[in-house]
Design brief:
32% of the residues lie in helices and 24% in strands. With 505 residues, it is of the alpha/beta class. Strands 6-7-8-3-9-10 form a six-stranded mixed beta sheet, with helices on both faces. A hairpin with a 2-residue loop joins β14 and β15. The longest helix is centred in the middle third of the chain and has 16 residues. The radius of gyration is 24 Å and the shape is globular. It starts with 13 loop residues before the first strand and ends with a helix.
Length: 505
């Protein structure tokens, strides 16, 4: 198969999805949903986790069949029985969970299943590398096509996935949470390229929970709630608050905390922590009953810092005090025994075990205490999980369903449930609402504040300044591995945080 090396899109695709319905068993996921898109339009597809967005797009992408309804492209009704059939019609689907193979080079991932061959039948490695390089040049990317995917950070893995769609010169691109792991400059680069595609009459479906991004890049929107289409229209006619209200059915809090809770004793203290690579000269104090944010730009070292504190990262020098006593935590098990819990940022790689059930994933750290002799007390296990499931409002079927049957946001809730079941004294949350819709975010924020009211010291690591402002009583801002500022609630605002995070004096 030959690939074009220039961005020339001569088609102005018109997509119509009419009265699409889909059930999984007795669970009605989509109920007569309408959706449309015109080439050269960037449309946001919005809704809470479980609203039906992914199912609707999986139908369009040929992953699953609808039970009823029609897909019409350029006036012609089509049925997609496989992703290939959808792709052949010019529809590229960039999934939220990236589909890259770590043990292959970038160019091999871009051409997998569509390899270029010489006349003698052998792979044309040079041609594939050259085509990949041309795509990167168009996207203003400084990436070596021969770099192994495993050597890329999460942001560049996302960009490689986008590049694969660009290589195929798709007429319609579905982007499911494409900016989740990207830095601000990378997001701007992606947005710039999206605008270029739009100018070439490419249609883009943009699925995101980041409403500020939706307002910045999208022309129109469609909102789903509980499997129904509740609103569609032009972005210029609504505000982000309007969209949030449509998604959840009620108003969403968007302001900073209004309370200042009394804090107890110091439960975690760091003095001059340094690992020589990711963080240096780190000193801070965390009190019981407070929420403290750590923020900055991606790559500022905050995740590596707390991974080390949790016994899952690099060795460091300096002093760490837990409840006033010197501690040298060498393993996660030791951290857990000291009452510390850590919810990691990368759910797919570090948070869930894809081959286990929902119950098993939600009970991984509590299984030891739910035993009768050498046997597992399943009844107790289910009771412990049930408490967290109800508290977090996890949308799910059976406990025995696979974790992968849940939406990304509900998977994140299961990860959170796993650690909350330990009743930790210190809870570290690394991007706790990544991939979570606005309604679920508020639920998690409420849980964070309730935990603090009950005396838990909560540490929130996030690049989203609004999130830090929303839940924290104070925050530390990091830049190039160092703490460059501490802001109390009165002085926390996006401008001040960004000034510190970018090294502005």
């Amino acid at each position: 198969m030959a690939y074009a090396t220039a961005l020339i899109f001569r088609y102005n695709m018109k997509l119509e999805m009419k009265e699409i319905s889909k059930s999984f068993g007795s669970n009605l996921v989509l109920d007569k949903v309408d959706f449309s898109l015109q080439g050269g339009e960037i449309k946001a597809l919005l809704g809470e986790n479980g609203a039906g967005k992914s199912t609707l797009m999986n139908i369009l992408g040929g992953v699953i069949l609808c039970d009823s309804g029609k897909i019409i492209i350029d006036g012609e009704e089509v049925v997609f029985s496989s992703p290939k059939e959808s792709l052949d019609k010019g529809i590229a689907f960039i999934h939220q969970e990236l589909n890259l193979i770590n043990d292959l080079a970038i160019y091999e991932n871009l051409f997998i299943g569509r390899e270029l061959r010489k006349k003698n039948g052998f792979l044309d490695k040079e041609k594939m590398i050259d085509e990949t390089r041309k795509v990167f040049e168009r996207m203003d990317l400084e990436l070596n096509p021969e770099t192994m995917v495993r050597d890329l950070d999460a942001s560049y893995k996302q960009i490689v996935e986008i590049s694969r769609a660009m290589l195929m010169n798709a007429r319609l691109v579905i982007m499911d949470e494409p900016t989740t792991s990207l830095t601000d400059p990378e997001i701007e680069r992606v947005f710039s390229f999206m605008k270029r595609l739009k100018n070439e009459s490419v249609g883009i479906i943009f699925i995101s929970h980041k409403l500020n991004e939706v307002m910045a890049i999208c022309d129109s929107y469609t909102v789903l709630r509980d499997g129904h289409m509740v609103s569609t229209g032009e972005i210029c006619s609504v505000s982000s608050s309007d969209l949030a209200r449509m998604m959840v059915g009620h108003d969403i809090k968007q302001n900073k905390r209004s309370d200042i809770m009394a804090c107890g004793k110091v439960v975690l203290e760091a003095k001059d922590l340094c690992d020589g690579e990711h963080f240096k000269n780190i000193s801070f104090k965390i009190h019981e009953g407070e929420v403290v944010g750590f923020t900055g730009l991606l790559g500022d070292g905050r995740s590596e810092l707390f991974q080390s504190i949790f016994g899952a990262g690099s060795q460091y020098t300096g002093t760490l005090l837990v409840n006033g006593k010197k501690a040298r935590i060498k393993s996660t098990m030791q951290a857990v025994e000291m009452g510390i819990a850590y919810v990691p940022r990368n759910r797919k790689e570090n948070g869930i075990v894809k081959d286990l059930s929902i119950l098993e994933n939600g009970s991984l750290v509590t299984m030891r205490k739910c035993k009768k002799g050498i046997l597992l007390d399943r009844s107790r296990l289910e009771n412990e999980f049930e408490k967290q499931k109800n508290a977090l409002r996890i949308k799910m079927g059976s406990n025995d369903d696979m974790i992968t049957s849940l939406s990304g946001g509900n998977q994140q809730k299961v990860v959170l449930a796993k650690w909350l079941s330990l009743s930790p004294k210190i809870l570290i949350l690394d991007n706790p609402t990544q991939g979570v819709d606005v309604g679920a975010k508020e639920e998690i924020y409420d849980i964070i504040l309730d935990l603090a009211k009950n005396g838990v010291a909560v540490i929130v690591l996030s690049s989203e300044a609004q999130e830090i402002i929303r839940v924290s009583s104070r925050c530390y801002v990091m830049y190039h591995g160092s703490i460059v500022g501490e802001l109390d609630q009165e002085h926390m605002d996006e401008h001040e945080i960004m000034k510190l995070a970018t090294g502005v004096k």
